[in-house]
Amino acid sequence: MASIDTKKDGIWESIKTIIYALLIAGIFRTLFFQPFWIPSGSMKETLLIGDFLFVNKMAYGYSRWSCPFGVCPITGRIFGSEPEAGDIVVFRHPGTGADYIKRVIGLPGDRVQMRDGVLFLNDEEVPQVPDGVFEETYERQGSMRQFPRCENAPVGQGGTCEKSRFIETLPNGVSYPVLNITDNSPGDNTPAFTVPEGHFFFMGDNRDNSLDSRAPRNVGGVGMVPFDHLIGRARHVVFSSAGTSMLFFWTWRSDRFFERLR
């Protein structure tokens, strides 16, 4: 029969194992890769609601926001490397503190403007080539159980929700799909924004369904995002589920497992 001391030793060893495991997981999450679920449709079709990915936190170096709750004792950014136009980035919203994921459109010093739904960078039109239609089922999606917005609305539940699809190509050659829902969205026509030094301009690929840098923070948008608020770069979808829980295996999107993002 085991002695009381032996039982105590066993309990203490179990506690230490749990503590070490949590420390290792915390270090891994802080320094290397952070898991991220896609909760909204602002980056369709590049990212779908229910996609799961790991964000590379080494890509742009580290700031206070690299740690949970912003507790890292870092001023500015260390080991910093600026993102490139077209990168898909998770960042901390400068106003609300929520984590957002969008695409880098404007770098420091760039002039960014939308005219009739077309992106202009430094007063030059960014080419958009029509590329068919993005289709999805009109049904509640994700944990928030929201219906998608459709260009062909109204659509009955279970029907086909459509959005016009275009391929947009930035001056550095990065191409990606963007979607259109309506021709009179508030974000289709904007002033010309000049991106300040040390800041970045972000937009969602689902242009008419994205709160991003086109709207200032005082009206519920994102505004310009400081460099030290960037958390990391997304490169691959690891797992994807169309259901409300990853345990519902019949809702898994196996065709998106380990899909590379562009």
The amount of beta strand, in percent, is: 25-35%
CATH superfamily of the largest domain: Umud Fragment, subunit A
CATH architecture of the largest domain: Ribbon
Radius of gyration, Cα only, in angstroms?
21 Å
The SS-based structural class is mainly beta
- Amino-to-carboxy terminus distance: 62 Å
Tally of separate helices: 1
Keywords:
globular, four-stranded antiparallel β-sheet, 2 domains, 262 residues, mainly beta, 1 helix, Umud Fragment, subunit A, eight-stranded antiparallel β-sheet
Walk me through the structure.
It catalyses: Cleavage of hydrophobic, N-terminal signal or leader sequences from secreted and periplasmic proteins. It is an enzyme of class 3 (hydrolase). This is Signal peptidase I. It is a single chain. The chain has 262 residues and is mainly beta. The protein has 2 domains: 1-31; 32-260, Umud Fragment, subunit A (Ribbon). It has one helix at 4-31, and strands at 33-37, 51-56, 88-92, 99-106, 111-115, 118-121, 124-125, 128-137, 160-169, 175-180, 193-194, 199-203, 225-226, 230-240, 259-260. Strands 1, 2, 3, 4, 12, 13, 14 and 15 form an 8-stranded antiparallel sheet that branches. A hairpin with a 6-residue loop joins strand 3 (88-92) and strand 4. The protein starts with a helix and ends with a strand. 27% of the residues are buried. The mean pLDDT is 88.
